[in-house]
Amino acid sequence: MNAPLYNNQILRLAASIPFHERLESPMASVEKRSPVCGSRVTVDVNLDADGRVAAIGMVVRACALGQASAALMGAHAVGRTLAELETARDELTAWLAGERDVPPGWPGLEIFAPALPHSARHPSIRLGFEAIAEAARLAAAERV
Questions:
Q1: Per-domain residue ranges for the chain?
Q2: Rounded CA gap, 4 and 7, in Å?
Q3: Residue 77 class from Cβ within 10 Å (0-12 exposed, 13-18 middle, 19+ buried)?
Q4: Residue 93: which residues within 8 A CB-CB, separation 6 or more?
Q5: Angle between helices 64-77 and 122-143 (to 10 degrees)
Q6: Maximum CA pair distance of the chain?
Q7: What is the pLDDT of residues 127-136, one digit of tens each?
Q8: Is pTM, for the whole model, over 0.85?
C-alpha cells in the first residue's frame, strides 16, 4: 500500500471529534489505553429505554489515527444497540488483523486501509470502539 498513513481525511477527522466532553451522570464509563503508544480514550454512555445509545461523552488523548477512529465511532454511535457496537468492534478488529478482506460495515472505517500493514497502530484505531462497546455492555447490565 502506497497511501500515506496520515492523510488529509485522517487529520480532518482527528480534529472533528464529536461529544468531546464527559457526561455529567453516565450510566457507564470505560477508559481504554494502548500500551504500545499510550493513546487513551474514555467513553461515557447513557442508553435509552430500548437499550440504544442515547448520549455519549468522550475524552480522547490519542494519535491522529486514534482520534480519527473515535470521531467516526462518535459520529455514528447514537441510536446503536449493544449488538451493533460489538459487531463494529469485532469487525474492525478482524479487518485490522487481516482476518477479513472487506472493511467493517461502520461508516468511514475504510479510511484506515493504509494502516493495515502497521500493526503497532491497530490498538489506537480500536480504542474508541472497544470503549463504547464495553460501556454499553456495562450500562445494559445496570438496566437489568
A1: 8-143
A2: 6
A3: buried
A4: 126
A5: 30
A6: 49
A7: 999 999 999 9
A8: yes
